[in-house]
Write a structure and sequence with these properties.
The complex is a heterotrimer of chains A (about 350), B (about 350) and C (about 300). Chain B has about 350 residues and is an alpha/beta fold. Chain B has 14 helices and 12 strands. Chain C has a single domain, classed as MetI-like (MetI-like fold). In chain C, helix 2 packs across helix 11, helix 4 packs antiparallel against helix 9 and helix 8 packs across helix 9. Chain C has 11 helices and no strands. The chains are: A alpha/beta (about 350), B alpha/beta (about 350), C mainly alpha (about 300).
């Protein structure tokens, strides 16, 4: 879908066709070095993202869940190319990101992000309208046109331009600021919007309003969403497919209903079982998982989940499982999903 | 065999451990007067867990802190009556207040990194609390601190005594804070969003821990949260707050299945739980009230789909619907009258 | 599929909130102490500007007979100095040089220091290391010693004194600028601006500067009083202003021996330095408090 009111250079036509995934990420790795007390000696690395590969299909909402240290925020930043990966490739609509076919600035007009902290993602010295218009002006749209676009978008997200365009971020509530961030993300008609815990800091009633808005905008602007959250209820409600991350790796990907009904990976199972009960007569009696999520500085050998896994065996400490596709369309990174994994149990294929 | 309902009725019959009557808390500063709490009355029986549910600006955290008089005295004005374990909290002098805090009532906060002193080890902080409330020798205090850490199921408690807060993971820190709060054997535990900042798998551990400790020690718990799920796991009773008032309270089962106040109903409906994908969520129109300029009458009326002129005129009276279920809404009082007449 | 953007019919009147600096200004106006300091400074500046018109006597007219007259002498309200020149006139004219030597080095250092600091803070990495470590070298010297050493090397005179003072203040401002810029750089709105494809220069211009210049400016204002005192000190040591030009520090020097015979007269230049420095400090403090707008 092209917006003919945008200048020619900014229109983003579909290149690969409907079957082509919008984003393909392959073996992304990002390690952050730790400062060592003795100069010249490396103190270790934080293996934030340790070989992550996935795809985002056109028009879907892909959910990303995981706990602290799983690498979901780093993955989001890699997707946006706010930080550069140490290795691995990123392909956007069949074109390599940063290549001659898809230079960085062009890529940036097609992928935008909404951050968790609604206040710190807005420049406190600029008015709302100026913040939104900035993105447009960066790409060459003139000042008057950019302001008009900004106001139209404010109107679309439910903030009356006459009342809000001249205001500063500190004068708005959290929910209103998040709407502004969404409006800013849409100024250039991107194709992919990454929402990094975008509703996590909002009150529940405000969250509901913003989620409704996101649904409307997705249909109207033909968007694809990557939705990162720790709230499993929101993920289930919003997302078509879900990707579960643990300690810098993808452990399971699948269709939302299937994943929630029959989680394959032991971690996913534990995570879903950790959701608080909804019936006071059936409260959770035993915590599904003991201990805290581990630190990505020294991940365990082999399968990084094995120290906490109820089904771990000796082989799990030796071999790191790759994502297997034994359960069709539902990749799982567990030795139980590989016929030759060496584990005594096998995951049953669920359709 | 006693059912939960029997225990509950028995608990109610005994004198309440925490009793609040018509609490009002006003903050003045910067030229504005913020009426954070506007007439809150509640009771917590011994061994009972009450969840205070509300969104930002509802006054739930302010109410909790008022129970221990934690607000800065110069900027705050408190009115009303608070009794904890028979003592009139508003009338306590400084020394008695210090004995109350930690000894009778203790508090657990949302972010342990901020609530624990970073320059002392966990052991030192627990020992300090123990020795403030009981004159025991250093070695005896250390033994008690160790037992406190064991009671919160921290692995390797010996080692944790010598650990600094930043050396521990989030879940362990929260357990340490609970141990600190319980170290002087209080009867009431106040918890301000204790699991909000924790990961899901850790949150359920801490919720189960709190529930078990409550049962073992017979604690009364007042638990502030915005997450109904957390309340389901721990609370016996729930009080829903809006605009500085309790709009509805009752046993948790009653509130989940038969809520009567429009705000409670809307809150329950706005959860994504059970909604189909792509279906619009129910939302509450409008925005939270400005506590510096509260409307007269029911604070929820401006956003209520059932509001009437009478709602804006005066604060609705509290209707008792039986079995501990109370609602502050003109609609409920009318239907209660109609039921009584029928 | 084509999609047209719905534009509002006529640009409606947009409710404009008061800008940041307007709010800061209003808060400042309510601060009585800062306003008092501002008034004093205004009076001093006006006095310096219109000194030639305001002076009752010739500041250079010397007379051995009239030397060291006390305060309240006829024709000489504030007495005379050791060469018989009218103190009041010399103090008035001296304000020019003293204020000039207080403000100018700070102004120049603000421009240079901010530029270096912002570049170091935003670029990070090697650029940051090189700039900051070079600055550290200068920072290692106590400012008074550095000023004296530089002035001594360059020689006496107003120009050289200005140069050495500027060099003393640049490192301090670079440090503050770098620190504030690094904080701002890590805020998410800078990430959002990068995500929109803006170049570093655009981001610095549109997002960093308006957040950073305020705090740096306030810090620089607090340096003005230091600069005045240092300049006076240099003149006192004979390294700055040369006689017979009136400058408060120089006057303090030449009146040194008179402290036993006419203590009040000898103290007058010091009192002027003190009053001006305190006023600058209070004003800077007031601006800083006004800028802490709690959101």
């Amino acid at each position: 879908m092209t917006d003919t009111t945008l200048p020619e250079a900014l229109r983003n036509p579909d290149v690969g066709g409907p079957a082509q995934p919008l984003v393909i990420a392959r073996d992304l790795v990002k390690h952050f070095p730790l400062k060592s007390k003795i100069p010249g000696r490396r103190a270790g690395v934080v293996r934030a993202v340790d070989g992550v590969g996935f795809e985002v299909r056109k028009g879907e909402t892909l959910g990303v869940v995981g706990e602290s240290g799983c690498g979901k925020s780093t993955t989001a930043r890699l997707l946006m190319q706010l930080i550069e990966q140490d290795s691995g490739e990123l392909i956007f609509d069949a074109q390599g990101v940063g290549s001659a076919q898809l230079p960085m600035k062009r890529f940036r007009s097609q992928v935008q992000m909404v951050f968790q902290d609604s206040y710190s993602s807005l420049n406190p010295r600029l008015t709302i309208e100026e913040s939104i218009a900035f993105t447009a002006r960066v790409h060459g749209i003139g000042a008057a046109e950019a302001s008009a676009r900004a106001r139209a978008l404010l109107d679309r997200v439910g903030l009356e331009p006459a009342r809000f365009a001249g205001r500063y971020p500190h004068e708005l509530s959290g929910g209103q600021r998040q709407r502004v961030n969404i409006a800013r993300a849409l100024v250039l008609r991107p194709r992919l919007v990454i929402l990094d815990e975008a509703v996590s800091a909002l009150d529940k009633s405000v969250e509901a309003q913003v989620l409704n808005l996101l649904l409307e905008l997705k249909a109207e602007f033909d968007l694809t969403y990557v939705f990162i959250s720790h709230d499993l209820n929101v993920i289930r409600y919003l997302c078509d497919r879900v990707m579960v991350m643990y300690l810098g790796k993808v452990v399971e990907v699948g269709d939302t209903e299937t994943l929630y009904a029959n989680p394959a990976h032991p971690y996913t199972r534990a995570l879903l079982a950790s959701m608080p009960a909804t019936d006071p007569d059936h409260r959770t009696l035993v915590a599904p998982l003991a201990g805290d999520p581990p630190n990505p500085i020294n991940p365990p050998s082999g399968c990084s989940f094995h120290p906490r896994c109820a089904m771990a065996e000796a082989v799990c400490a030796r071999r790191a499982p790759a994502l297997s596709d034994a359960l069709a369309g539902h990749p799982v990174a567990c030795l139980m999903a590989h016929a030759d994994g060496g584990h005594s149990r096998q995951l049953a294929a669920t359709t | 065999m006693t059912t939960p309902q029997d225990n509950h009725a028995e608990a109610q019959a005994a004198a309440p451990m925490v009793s609040v009557r018509d609490l009002r808390v006003t903050f003045s500063g910067g030229g504005k007067t913020i009426r954070a709490v506007n007439g809150v009355s509640l009771d917590v029986a011994p061994g009972e867990a009450l969840a205070l549910i509300g969104e930002s600006g509802s006054g739930k955290s302010v109410t909790l802190r008022a129970l221990m008089r934690l607000h800065p005295p110069r900027r705050t004005r408190m009115e009303g009556a608070i009794r904890i374990d028979g003592a009139d909290v508003m009338a306590l002098d400084a020394r008695a207040l210090q004995r109350l805090r930690g000894g009778t009532v203790a508090m657990v906060f949302q972010e342990p990194l901020l609530a624990l002193d970073p320059v002392y080890t966990v052991g030192q902080q627990i020992i300090e609390c123990i020795r403030t409330h009981a004159s025991v020798s250093a070695s005896e205090a250390r033994q008690r601190a160790l037992r406190a850490l064991e009671s919160v199921r921290i692995p390797s408690p010996e080692r944790r005594l010598a650990a600094y807060p930043h050396e521990m993971s989030g879940g362990m820190r929260q357990r340490a804070m609970i141990a600190l709060a319980l170290s002087a054997s209080p009867k009431v535990l106040l918890a301000d969003e204790p699991t909000t900042a924790l990961d899901a798998t850790v949150q359920i551990q801490v919720l189960i821990l709190l529930r078990e400790l409550q049962r073992e020690l017979g604690l009364s718990i007042v638990f502030v949260t915005h997450d109904i799920g957390a309340a389901v796991e721990i609370a016996d009773r729930v009080a829903v707050m809006y605009g500085g008032r309790i709009v509805e309270e009752g046993p948790i089962r009653t509130l989940l299945r038969a809520a009567r106040h429009p705000y409670t109903i809307a809150l329950l409906q706005s959860r994504q739980h059970g909604m189909d994908r792509g279906q619009r969520l129910q939302t509450i129109a409008g925005s939270p009230p400005d506590l510096a300029a509260l409307p007269p009458g029911c604070t929820f009326a401006p956003r209520c789909p059932h509001a009437r002129p009478a709602c804006l005129a005066q604060v609705p009276a509290t209707t008792d619907l039986g079995q501990g279920h109370r609602v502050s809404c003109i609609l409920a009082s009318e239907s209660a009258v109609a039921e009584a007449a029928a | 599929m084509e999609m047209t953007l719905k534009k509002p019919a006529a640009a409606p009147l947009v409710q404009r909130s008061p800008g940041y600096w307007t709010t800061v200004g209003r808060r400042l106006l309510r601060n009585k102490l800062a306003m008092l300091a501002a008034l004093i400074l205004l009076a001093l500046v006006l006095m310096a500007l219109f000194a030639p018109a305001l002076m009752p006597s010739d500041p250079y007219a010397a007379s051995i007979l009239k030397r060291l007259k006390p305060v309240g002498t006829e024709h000489y309200p504030l007495g005379t100095d050791e060469l018989g020149r009218d103190m009041l006139s010399r103090l008035m004219l001296g304000a020019r040089l003293s204020l000039f030597m207080g403000i100018t080095p700070v102004l120049i250092a603000f421009v240079i220091g901010s530029a270096l600091g912002i570049v170091a803070g935003y670029a990070g990495g090697w650029t940051n290391t090189v700039i900051m470590r070079l600055v550290d070298i200068l920072y290692a010297f106590p400012s008074v010693l550095l000023a004296i050493a530089l002035s001594g090397t360059l020689g006496a005179g107003v120009g050289n004194a200005l140069l050495s003072l500027t060099i003393v203040f640049v490192p301090q401002i670079v440090r503050v600028a770098e620190s504030v810029t690094t904080q701002v750089r890590n805020r998410e709105f800078v990430d959002a601006a990068r995500a929109s494809g803006a170049s570093s220069l655009t981001i610095v211009r549109a997002h960093v500067l308006n957040n950073v210049l305020g705090p740096i400016f306030v810090y620089a204002t607090s340096l003005i009083s230091v600069s005045m005192i240092l300049a006076s000190g240099l003149s006192f040591l004979g390294l700055g202003v040369k006689p017979p030009e009136p400058e408060w520090g120089l006057m303090l020097n030449t009146l040194r021996t008179a402290i036993y015979t006419q203590p009040w007269v000898a103290a007058l230049p010091g009192a002027m330095i003190f009053m001006t420095s305190i006023s600058f400090n209070l004003l800077a403090d007031g601006i800083r408090s006004a800028m802490e707008i709690k959101d």
